[in-house]
């Protein structure tokens, strides 16, 4: 991603993450606090932390249709990498951009020495879950909740 576009991407990503956290049940206040803290950890000084990279996902004409954020996971295992975020613009979904971005992300991680690549996906994101399963990703944990209102 062009470094000049990074600050706008960072704000967009923070807002999207907070929105997803609200959709998953957090209060707006907690979601914004959590998103702010998470982005501050991952992007100290407003730039990607060590090993992290954000790629634009582009169409055949070179127009950005989304992004992929990839880097080492938070464990002590240097070979364990993580897809921190992938977003394809809503009007461009279903055209193979996400699949292509994931495949290229896997190749990039492998070239950096990764032996595993993980990710998290919100339960309500059934389209993404289907994509990841079709690419061979396996469920390693499930977080559940019941509203008691």
Automatic annotation (TrEMBL):
<dbReference type="InterPro" id="IPR016181">
    <property type="entry name" value="Acyl_CoA_acyltransferase"/>
</dbReference>
<protein>
    <submittedName>
        <fullName>GNAT family N-acetyltransferase</fullName>
    </submittedName>
</protein>
<dbReference type="InterPro" id="IPR050832">
    <property type="entry name" value="Bact_Acetyltransf"/>
</dbReference>
<keyword id="KW-0012">Acyltransferase</keyword>
<feature type="domain" description="N-acetyltransferase">
    <location>
        <begin position="11"/>
        <end position="149"/>
    </location>
</feature>
<dbReference type="InterPro" id="IPR000182">
    <property type="entry name" value="GNAT_dom"/>
</dbReference>
<dbReference type="Pfam" id="PF00583">
    <property type="entry name" value="Acetyltransf_1"/>
</dbReference>
<keyword id="KW-0808">Transferase</keyword>
